[in-house]
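Saturday, quiet lab. Running sequence design on the structure tokens for the scaffold JK sent over.
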């Protein structure tokens, strides 16, 4: 059973109507392109994206100044509807000198389309869009796994600290298992990504800030016990914050 080809919705932003129409007409020769919208202003383009209009490829004419183009790309990438889009600069013949091409690379564009463009060059743009989408999805997954592993490492430190202080950390262990259960759902490439990040995180983990000491007495000992109970309660809820526990530790030692 054959599957329908992936379609890439595009946005063309150019001040010149003829250039906009010419590029739109060219995309009709490439089956991978779906709907193509036309706009003549970067602000209008951002407003449309802000409204939830999703695009896979955004063509921006080099007729605009580099500053506004850079700002547009940066702000558009922060919006849900266009965070995975491929941003392509359409360079007119006069802008295709090597120095201009090099400077355009620095403003956040993912690729360039040179006039006069061909069907082959537009097919390459759809291939670029697929790769950009894959790469950005991978970056988000890496960040998510990294954040969760940071929490896991902190949980391990707190469990070890409280256990060494003589507390029953059973409920904290259950919370720890819940956190780690996410990793069981990872498959294939995601699981390998987790292994790589985990090895890096655990290898570079700093020495635990909180060490159990048995030489507390008097009021300081009572304060320390209150601090430990508070940390245990937070640990069970997964709400431990280094800043909170550090401040409590300072109170206990004062």
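Result came back. Writing it out in full:
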């Amino acid at each position: 059973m054959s599957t329908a080809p992936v379609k890439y919705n595009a946005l063309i932003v150019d001040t010149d109507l003829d250039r906009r129409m010419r590029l739109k007409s060219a995309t009709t020769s490439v089956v991978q392109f779906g709907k193509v919208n036309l706009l003549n202003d970067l602000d209008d383009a951002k407003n449309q994206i802000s409204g939830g209009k999703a695009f896979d490829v955004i063509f921006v004419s080099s007729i605009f100044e580099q500053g506004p183009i850079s700002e547009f790309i940066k702000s558009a990438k922060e919006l849900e509807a266009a965070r995975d889009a491929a941003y392509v600069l359409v360079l007119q013949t006069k802008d295709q000198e090597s120095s201009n091409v090099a400077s355009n690379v620095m403003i956040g564009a993912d690729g360039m389309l040179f006039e006069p463009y061909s069907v082959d060059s537009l097919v390459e743009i759809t291939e670029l869009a697929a790769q950009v989408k894959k790469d950005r999805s991978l970056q988000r997954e890496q960040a998510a796994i990294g954040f969760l592993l940071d929490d896991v490492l902190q949980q391990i430190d707190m469990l070890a600290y409280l256990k060494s202080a003589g507390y029953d950390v059973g409920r904290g262990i259950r919370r720890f298992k819940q956190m780690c259960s996410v990793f069981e759902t990872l498959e294939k490439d995601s699981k390998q990504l987790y292994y790589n990040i985990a090895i890096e995180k655990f290898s570079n983990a700093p020495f635990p800030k909180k060490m159990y000491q048995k030489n507390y007495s008097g009021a300081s000992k009572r304060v320390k016990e209150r601090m430990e109970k508070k940390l245990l309660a937070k640990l069970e809820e997964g709400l431990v914050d280094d800043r909170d526990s550090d401040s409590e530790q300072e109170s206990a030692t004062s």
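Notes for JK: The two ends are 72 Å apart (CA to CA). The domain at 8-117 is CATH 3.40.50.2300 (Rossmann fold). Ask whether to fix the surface positions before the next round.
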